[in-house]
Amino acid sequence: MEKEGCSSAFSKMILEEAKKDKNIMVVCTDSRGSAKLGTYPDELPEQFVEIGIAEQNAVTVSAGMSHIGKKVFVLGPASFYSTRSSEQVKVDLAYSHNNVTVIGISGGVSYGALGATHHSLQDIALMRAIPNLTVEIPSDATQMRAVTAELLKVGRPTYIRIGRSPVPTLYNNVEDIRIGKANKWFAGHDAAVIACGQLVGRALEAAKLLKKEGIEITVVDMHTIKPLDTDMIRDVAEKCGCILTLEEHSIYGGLGGAISEFVVQNVPVPMKICGIPDEDIPNGSDAEVFRYYQLDPEGIAEKVKALINEKG
Predict the structure, then answer these.
(1) What domains does the chain contain, in order, with CATH numbers?
(2) Which of 37, 133, 118 shows the shortest CA–CA distance to 84?
(3) 72 vs 147: CA distance, rounded Å
């Protein structure tokens, strides 16, 4: 399957769009290489600002540019923008309704061996609690392009978290993707798996493994964590009778927390929240960490079977 990184997809797209629109600005914090900005800084130096290692300043500067009519995308490590800059995101962007998109690169455990200081496993819990802030976790490069295109048309304060490595291409058309609307694969009634980010691809692989055993599941890509597609959640809960969530995030406060808050109040069904437990995780590549916590396709398949047995 073809692979492409979300950061590379964004960089290529924003360069072409910025050439046509002088109001587009890209800001980064000593991270043009990690963000894979390519030739953007050299081709459009007047539409590029590099702040240095100062994420709080970067968000505030971006808010100021938005206030005078610019469409701003600010990039840097998700681990730092979600914690170090949380007050600026809350006040300067969301509270002030500024058209700035914060793109947290190398989210989740993408930084691998750099360890806990560079992992972002609490960012979704924090960001989705901020009023007026849209929260996105694209699962592939096509989805990243679609979300970027929508934000260029109708700007809003937004946090996007993307991984570091190339991921399998799951979507063919950007027209199939809209902010706030989940996407669904298959129509199995044994269980529903709701995932986000690069775990969507692993959930699809797990679905194929389960099908060989006669177990038919539905897989949902909940790429927008806020606003949540509650219609989709209700639909799969009613049809499948149980839900398993998958995320590259702490089991507290992320995708699973958001979905369970809706499910318990509106359509109670058995649920299992799968992610990173509340502990210091071992250093390693994202694939190694996923395998360790049984978030690889084989592990996911086993978790689904256990949930189905609990459902009875």
Answers:
(1) 3-168 (3.40.50.970), 183-311 (3.40.50.920)
(2) 118
(3) 14
- The two tokens of residue 270 are 């058995």
8 A C-beta contact, residue 222 and residue 232: yes
In degrees and rounded to multiples of 5, residue 207 shows phi and psi of -60, -40
pLDDT in tens, 167-192: 999 999 888 899 999 999 999 999 99
Percentage of residues in the chain with pLDDT exceeding 70?
99
> 277: burial class by Cβ within 10 Å (0-12, 13-18, 19+)?
exposed
283 contacts 292 by C-beta, under 8 angstroms: no
β-pair partners for 134? 158
2 backbone dihedrals φ, ψ, rounded to 5°? -65, 140
Our separate counts of H helices and E strands in the chain read 12, 14
- Please tell me the number of Cα atoms within 13 Å of 110 on its side-chain side: 24
What's the average model confidence in pLDDT over 2-10?
92
Give the strand order in the sheet containing 48-50: 48-50, 24-28, 71-77, 100-105, 158-161, 134-136, 224-226
Element housing 219 (H / E): strand 217-221
